[in-house]
Amino acid sequence: MKLSCSEQATGVGAWSYWESKKEGNGRMTITAQTPSMVTYRLEFPDFGTQSTGSIELQPVADGLRVVWMDSGDFGMNPLNRWFGLFLERLIGPDFERGLANLKKLAEK
Predict the structure, then answer these.
(1) What residue ranges define each of the domains in the chain, with the CATH number in brackets?
(2) Residue 74 CA from chain centroid, whole number
(3) Which of 34, 39, 49, 88 could link 92 by a cystine bridge, Cβ 3.0 to 4.6 Å?
(4) Are the CB atoms for 23 and 90 separated by under 8 Å?
């Protein structure tokens, strides 16, 4: 997998791009940011699809809850809708690894 990032490392407009023969290509761009939430656009150019998502920090009695959401519309294209059925299996493990890494960093 080949990874590249924008010169801007943080904040609105920062992006990362990946190229992978196995997983396909994609791009994630930060579109909004507050102290408790980051919103992003996730694009899969090989499939002509995109989604929007957010990572939100919510205070709870014993610390913080991290809520990571992602949603998109596959329209009426049958191929895109079929792809949507497998999307959680494709990107879910990456989200889980990201949350696990975030937990490790937060607990240090």
Answers:
(1) 2-107 (3.30.530.20)
(2) 17
(3) 88
(4) yes
Query: Among all chains, which residue has been given the structure tokens 């999307």?
Result: 87
In the three-class reduction of DSSP (H, G, I as helix; E, B as strand; rest coil), residue 11 is classed as coil
Angle at the Cα of 92 (from 5 to 24), degrees rounded to 5?
A: 50
- Exposed/middle/buried for residue 27 (C-beta within 10 Å: 0-12, 13-18, 19+): middle
Continuous H helices in the chain: 78-107
The helix/strand/coil state of 92 is helix
Q: Taking Cα atoms as reference points, which of 58, 74, 68 lies closest to residue 91?
A: 68
Residues 6+ apart with CB under 8 A from 40: 28, 29, 30, 31, 52, 53, 54, 55
